[in-house]
Design goal:
32% of the residues lie in helices and 20% in strands. It is of the alpha/beta class and 366 residues long.
């Protein structure tokens, strides 16, 4: 059911009122033009959310890359959350998750021909991208809905099916970064992580609850999972299916994301999940974590042993000095976005049309 997992810390609501007042004042300053917002002569698409994490921004950024990358030179600009560096950094094949953040690292590793950069100041980051790489056609801003110093050509807001906006509260009582009424700034809204068997009536119910304006487009997407990919392909079989893992094999899950429930539910269709380690989103794994994983792995029983992690966690775990037995056992589960109720084509056409009509050059890649 839509919004089933919304939990509110009611005792923190007074603090949420103060937080909301500060956010409201900031937004009004932008609305009134007192705080400056800048537009650019290049298509800028913002992908963000109203809540703190867990809506699937990275898979949707990757969807846009695959949709547009064959025609346009795309750049992805992120703040590089929890990176150990500052300022503007243009990623290359030597960049690490520690330097640019796990999500930009994942994107650069997955799409090496795509330009990836990080800068907490998105306005400065866009100017640097234009200066250093003049032939960029489209810039995708990751997690930038609250970064109002840039006025994007189109703003896409993601909202998790499992956490309905109309039931949520502002931080810290809930997980809203700003009031749900600020959703009016978005051109497109995508309800993510929908169940594949969602009933037709739910589309209408969710649409009514969101109260979108006529200029806003609403889409629904779900997550699909690919075959397991080796984190260290030089040490083991590069790709396997969950179906190929025997019930007699030992299986362990290590996850450090905001909402692990969909992934755990998917894996549980194939195997009993008796051994799992769950960490906070963007968790930086420590030596104590390494010892814990090693101890749990050693105690795991089975003819063969597997550790399943997320693709995002793989970005950080690749740099940890695991022994060869664990390296051979480590696999990540890729996530892909699929649009529902035949909205995929409409979304593709809408985005492609926006970019085509606002591109700087009349030339696109053949």
């Amino acid at each position: 059911m839509y919004g089933k997992s919304v939990k509110i810390n009611h005792w923190l609501i007074p603090i949420s009122w103060l937080y909301g007042l500060g956010v409201e004042i900031r937004n009004k300053l932008f609305d009134w033009g007192i705080l400056p917002a800048e537009e650019f002569d290049i298509p800028v698409i913002s992908v963000g959310n109203l809540t703190v994490g867990g809506t699937g921004k990275t898979p949707h950024i990757e969807y846009l890359i695959e949709l547009l990358g064959h025609k346009y030179h795309i750049a992805v600009l992120s703040r590089g959350y929890k990176r150990k560096s500052r300022g503007f950094i243009l990623a290359d094949d030597k960049s690490t998750a520690r330097e640019i953040g796990d999500e930009p690292y994942q994107i650069k590793r997955k799409y090496p021909n795509i330009t990836v950069a990080v800068d907490a100041n998105r306005r400065r980051g866009i100017k640097q991208l234009k200066k250093q790489i003049p032939d960029i056609d489209v810039i995708l801003l990751d997690d930038a809905f609250q970064h109002r110093y840039v006025t994007p050509l189109s703003s896409i807001v993601l909202t998790d099916y499992n956490r309905a906006l109309h039931l949520d509260k502002l931080l810290p009582a809930g997980r809203l970064r700003e009031s749900r009424h600020e959703l009016s700034r978005a051109n497109m809204v995508i309800v993510t992580k929908c169940p594949i068997d969602m009933k037709p009536i739910e589309y209408n119910i969710i649409s009514r609850w969101l109260h979108l304006f006529p200029y806003q487009n609403l889409y629904f997407s779900t997550l699909s999972y690919g075959h397991l990919q080796a984190v260290f392909p030089d040490t083991t079989i590069g790709e396997i299916s969950l179906k190929d893992i025997s019930k007699k094999d030992g299986l362990m899950v290590v996850i450090g994301i905001a909402n692990p429930a969909p992934m755990l539910q998917y894996i549980s269709h194939f195997h009993d999940l008796r051994e799992k380690l769950l960490y906070p989103d963007h968790h930086n794994f420590t030596s104590n974590d390494l010892n814990d994983i090693t101890t749990r792995f050693s105690a795991l029983k089975g003819e063969k042993k597997y550790i399943i992690i997320t693709e995002k966690d793989a970005a950080r775990l690749r740099s940890i000095p695991f022994d060869d037995a664990i390296k051979k056992a480590l696999y990540f589960l890729p996530i892909h976005v699929r649009f529902m109720q035949h909205t995929g084509t409409s979304f593709d056409e809408k985005i492609s049309d926006i970019i085509y009509k606002n591109r700087r050059s009349k030339q696109v890649k053949k």
